[in-house]
Amino acid sequence: MSNAHIVVVGNQKGGSGKSTTSMHLVVSLLNTGYSVGSIDLDDPQATLTRYIENRRTFMESTGIDLSMPEHHLLSRSIYDNPTLARSDEETRLDACVSSLAAMHDFVVIDTPGSDSNLSRIGHSYADTLITPLNDSFVDLDLLAKVHPESYKVLRPSTYAEMVWEQRKARATRDGGKIDWIVMRNRLASIGSRNTQAMEDVLQALSKRIGFRLAPGFGERVIFRELFLKGLTLLDLRSAEANMRLNMSHVAARHEVRALLTAIGLTPAVDARPARTSYESRDDGVGRLPI
Question: Among 11, 79, 162, 216, which is disulfide-ready with 183 (CB 3.0 to 4.6 Å)?
Fold first, then answer.
């Protein structure tokens, strides 16, 4: 495998903003000059895949040229036998990641909002793991069990344990390490006792199980509107996108940039020119619908 940087966006809970985060990260890297491959492991929901399909449709209907990743959608194994299924998924995902890593600077992997073998394997390839987390103790429960009155962290929970296992799998496979980042989404604009309690618990938990905290996205209608056109907030600086910026859009775009800065993947000045589009093909690695 080449030196491509692999970013996995993962959480075992739906509705946390994984696909929105993945798409904004992909477009940010493309617009800066990096070539990017993307993989969607969330078949059949395939939100990232539909996001990219919407982007292609927007380009075709408007004639506007937008940067595009080379995108792959991988489905779960057709085998009923658990051993055969795991081997099949490992083989296909390894071939897909290796192929993209040989051709691109970055590979972004979007995972399903549930626990699955394919998702676990995908996590093990991460150089950087980004976990979007809604600012709620309901979502936090996947990371840790918390005392209901003192808010003291009692023990790591299911997703944190899974990440630990995949960190070990990554170290065993190639000696690599996973930089884990938890981003807080849907932060309230006005501080509250719940917000402060979440901050305190996450700070304590970050030291215990080894992740960094990063700012996430607010609850904004613009994200849902952009999905239908396959656009991101980073595309709106172009007048050709035919969308007027208001203060909410500007604030949301600042949130995206703050996240990218916190992640530490600020593109270098001498990055290679990005390849802007790719044709559909099927090379036996997986279904390539774009």
Answer: 216
